[in-house]
Amino acid sequence: MELPVGGGMRRSASHTSLSESDDFELTRLLSKPRINVERQRSFDDRSLSDVSHSGGYGRGGAFDGMYSPGGGLRSLVGTPASSALHSFEPHPIVGDAWEALRRSLVFFRGQPLGTVAAVDHASEEVLNYDQVFVRDFVPSALAFLMNGEPDIVKNFLLKTLLLQGWEKKVDRFKLGEGAMPASFKVMHDAKKGVETLHADFGESAIGRVAPVDSGFWWIILLRAYTKSTGDFTLAETPECQKGMRLILSLCLSEGFDTFPTLLCADGCCMIDRRMGVYGYPIEIQALFFMALRCALQMLKHDNEGKEFVEKIATRLHALSYHMRSYFWLDFQQLNDIYRYKTEEYSHTAVNKFNVIPDSIPDWLFDFMPCQGGFFIGNVSPARMDFRWFALGNMIAIVSSLATPEQSVAIMDLIEERWEELIGEMPLKICYPAIENHEWRIVTGCDPKNTRWSYHNGGSWPVLLWLLTAACIKTGRPQIARRAIDLAERRLLKDGWPEYYDGKLGRYVGKQARKFQTWSIAGYLVAKMMLEDPSHIGMISLEDDKAMLKPVLKRSASWTN
Ligand code: GLC
Questions:
Q1: What is the tens place of the pLDDT at every residue in 279-321?
Q2: How far is the CA of 106 from the centre of ligand 1 (A)?
Q3: pLDDT over 70 percentage in the chain
Q4: Any idea what the Cα angle at residue 101 is, between residues 149 and 517, rounded to 5°?
Q5: Is 85 exposed, middle or buried (0-12, 13-18, 19+ CB in 10 A)?
Q6: Segments making up each domain of the chain, as ranges
Q7: Which of 27, 34, 117, 317 has the fewest CB atoms within 10 Å, i.e. is most exposed?
Q8: 89-538 domain in CATH 3.40.50.720?
Q9: Pocket perturbation via mutation, ligand 1, pick of 136, 212, 429, 498 by most ligand atoms within 8 A of CB
Q10: 197: which strand partners?
Q11: For residues 426 and 459, is the Cβ–Cβ distance under 8 A?
Q12: Residues with CB under 6 A from ligand 1
């Protein structure tokens, strides 16, 4: 297990040592055949165009310099700092994207606090798109961090922490203390001349869904802030330590669970409507895993923190085993499930969850390439949701929930199934769409989630930043470049839509907002990471050798 020194991320007098000790294990990258290695030169020595056009991202120097100080060059506010510094020829739409991102800024008592979900003046129905969503703010935050503007992120982290302290109620029922809001809004009282915050923890949200992902994103962002700025003091404050502990208490409590995965209700994450994403959805499991690992780096080993550190270590051990073994699907595993016997009792059962082979959907047999694999959507008794979900799989790569072999397999799958998963606009939120009777039953006849639209097989540009991070982590930036090229052909012209519809993602989504902030920020983050791969250190976690590796050749040889 990655043991934090002192209490938190490895700290030393020189911040640059962060990069040596943490997360990006160079040797592994160096041994990959796809990667063009050149360790001798430091990142600063070589020209950036060198990196971006060579296709060789595994160059050691880039990853050596994960800590980028927030001083000097970062005063170039308004200009993407990396482009300015390295005389990169930015794509013409980068400037527009930055302007649009800044237009989405929300101020609270004079300080920037977040970004609204969408600045769509043409849209008649604002709903809650004028709010700051915690999950939507993540790509914005990363863009600002990468551009050397950490203050807004710090402000966001602190203010959301205050919101966490509120008493949260839906009707007469009180939510857990650690719950973080899905979104919040700045209210202006013109008469009194005061500004106040109003948060939504699910009590106003459509369908009254609680955002299980918000707390995880908060922890992940706190680490990103710390890694990016080298400012440990924020994470070390009693407030942040308590905030983390409260979030963790919600998901580490003991109960009736037989699995280490986290049991959730429908609509608890990015897919916040009924879409059959309940039980143990991959998105939440991957974020849970990542947040646990981030917290492990930041929690102090003091009286209050110690208990959590131990619990996290135990849970991570079990969670990684469970996910890597039972959620993982490749050609071999599919063939094994296809031949499963059912009704097996006792601990010798091979088909532990009693999955009936007839429940394997037809599309999957053709979809599964010989080389490649992915984490399926959900696993619970007699149920495997075989759909592909992009966010969970990308987070699995960046957090190293996926083993190095599994990460490579996921990227292989994306390349092999490019048309299905990327099509004309990156990237499908899930695949395939559900239709007809199944759509009626699973979505409750949701007219917004008709086949190949919105959450039901729609294409979401925001996911581009996660794809790019996964590409860089696995040493395959050319995949990201291809996807970004596609996005650049349409995004500005189409007014930065929230999502696209159709099997290939060719049409601007039926009810898609324009100037959707995370589409804009997601694009910028993808661009900045590709220009300067060292940025990945903010969000990437290195493979942890001590965690239990699954037996990749499963069938009857599965072991406990
Ligand atoms: C939609 C999305 C959700 C997002 C929100 C604001 O509800 O499903 O993931 O956070 O819009 O953009």
A1: 999 999 999 999 999 999 999 999 999 999 999 999 999 999 9
A2: 17
A3: 81
A4: 120
A5: middle
A6: 89-538
A7: 27
A8: no
A9: 136
A10: 186
A11: yes
A12: 117, 133, 135-136, 270, 272
